Amino acid sequence: MELTSLEPRRKGLTQLYLDGEPGPKLDTEVVLLARLQPGDILSEEELQQLVERSDARRAQEKALYLLEHRSHSKRELTEKIARTAASREAAQAAADHLEEIGLVDDRAFAETYARELFQRKRYGARRVRQELSRKGIGRDIIDQVLEQYQDMDQAAGENIALVLERRYPTWREDEKARRRAVALQRLGYSFEQVRAVMGGLDTE
User: Fold this and answer.
1) Is 159 helix (H, G, I), strand (E, B) or coil?
2) Segments of the chain scoring below 70 in pLDDT
3) Within 120-186, where are the H helices?
């Protein structure tokens, strides 16, 4: 196949034209490093290698960009890369590499995320477990992390009372607000915990 022309595209890509027809879009850095020029003859194998190098570089660059903004679990990072920048194989390889060098650490991510959910969002343990699982954290790590928060069950009443006053300030007087307040179960508290706190505050 003859490389008849190369045209720059958005997002750091270069469009290849092969035998006059549109070919793959490659990462521009890969194109430059390969020193591709119109008139070059590429075999199918050479083209496939270029595509794979481009895919790998796009995945790595996207991974680093995402990690600059906030930490991610390994599965979350892989899915975001595969959805927006590269193949799933390249995304998985990029995540594996970053895990190997310590830039992706599911245990550290789970500890930080659990602390945020417990302390800032006032979630109960059940909801925290669900959110960690949704991020792709394994059950063993979740169990280990939540062991550190066993006393949060004792603080459940305080958290429920705080959220009640913040989100449903009229629940004592307004029956509709009271019924909505029972939905605090979605934060990870049991129906019994919510009703117990509402009953105690109402009595006070």
Assistant:
1) helix
2) 151-154, 200-204
3) 125-134, 139-147, 156-167, 175-181
Rg over alpha carbons for the chain, rounded to the nearest Å, is: 26
Concatenating the DSSP letter of every residue in 10-76 gives TTTEEEEEETTEEEEEEEHHHHHHHT--TT-B--HHHHHHHHHHHHHHHHHHHHHHHHHHS---HHH
Single pTM value for the model: 0.76
3-state secondary structure of 2: strand
Q: What is the pLDDT of residue 125?
A: 87
**Bridge partners of 9?**
13
**Which helix (H) or strand (E) is 3 found in, with range?**
strand 3-9
4-22 in b/e form (b: 16+ CB < 10 A) is eebeeeeebbbebebeeee
136: three-class secondary structure by DSSP: coil
